[in-house]
Design brief:
The chain is of the alpha/beta class. Helices cover about 40% and strands about 15% of the residues. Bound molecules: flavin-adenine dinucleotide and zinc ion (ZN). The site of flavin-adenine dinucleotide has 20 residues, from helix 1 and helix 7. It is found in: Cytoplasm.
């Protein structure tokens, strides 16, 4: 109770399986007394491109544009575009970040990747020696909740799904100092029976009930590549 949760959601259709997973999370966490904020990226028409439009006012070096340097400088002088500042505020306040999305090409959809690219600015999320366990977003948890087209069996044959999680969980969240909870994966909602779909939705509700008792994973290479 009293915890703040930010759900960053990337699906176009509220009636989708991802939409149902989102709805469950909002309802269950609200019921627990958490305050829940949703960034519905498609509905917001969130800009995924990292461009100079993200800097308000003068550039640090207008001769040759360097996105990382310019956003870092802009962050320090309070000159980041409004949509970024708003997302950063939500991240800052959150105890838990949930990312809800369908797997696209073994990765997150572009609109969500764009959120990562643009929101997690140097000076805000990390700094020169402030990375991984020293990252700037301390005392926060993250959880990647996603759906796939492929079945669980296919993923077991193709290779452990943990390989896909390395860039997202370790490369982004851990890099910024955010702890990582076990991912939540719903395999092939399009290809299973209605009963199985209901079962997967119930499992998500059940997991959320005891979420705050969970320990973060040991986000080291061994977890991913052992
Ligand atoms: P939906 O189609 O919305 O939902 C599935 C079914 O659940 C629907 O029949 C829906 O009506 C039903 N449903 C919704 N809510 C409920 C409810 N409350 N109760 C019961 N039923 C409900 N897959 C991979 O595995 N690997 C990839 O690399 C990959 N790359 C992709 C790249 C692209 C560009 C695209 C478009 C897809 C890719 N996919 C991939 C497939 C994709 O991951 C799946 O299509 C997606 O995860 C399915 O989730 P959804 O929410 O869109 O499903
Ligand atoms: Zn890690």
């Amino acid at each position: 109770a009293g915890k703040k949760v930010l759900i960053v959601y990337a699906h176009q259709e509220p009636k989708s399986f991802n939409g149902s997973l989102l709805k469950i999370a909002v309802e269950e966490l609200t019921k627990q007394g958490c305050s829940v904020t949703v960034s519905d990226l498609y509905a917001m028409q969130f800009e995924p491109r990292a461009t100079r439009n993200d800097i308000v006012g003068h550039l640090h070096n207008s001769e040759a544009f360097n996105y990382a340097v310019e956003t870092w400088e802009a962050f320090k002088r309070g000159g980041l575009s409004k949509d970024l500042v708003e997302e950063q505020k939500k991240v800052q306040e959150a105890d838990l970040l949930i990312f809800q999305f369908p797997l696209f090409w073994f990765n997150m959809p572009a609109i969500l990747k764009g959120w990562m690219d643009r929101v997690l600015v140097r000076g805000f999320a990390y700094d020169s020696s402030k990375v991984y366990d020293s990252g700037l977003l301390q005392n926060k948890l993250s959880l990647f909740s996603f759906t796939t087209g492929g079945s669980k069996e296919k993923y077991a044959i193709r290779g452990d799904i943990r390989y896909l999680l390395w860039p997202m969980q370790h490369g982004i969240m851990h890099f910024c100092g955010v702890k990582v909870l076990e991912p939540h994966i719903c395999y092939a909602p399009e290809n299973v029976s209605e009963d199985k779909r209901k079962e997967m939705l119930t499992a998500w509700t059940q997991r959320l009930k005891t979420l705050w008792k969970e320990e973060p994973i040991d986000c080291s290479p061994e977890w991913y590549f052992k």
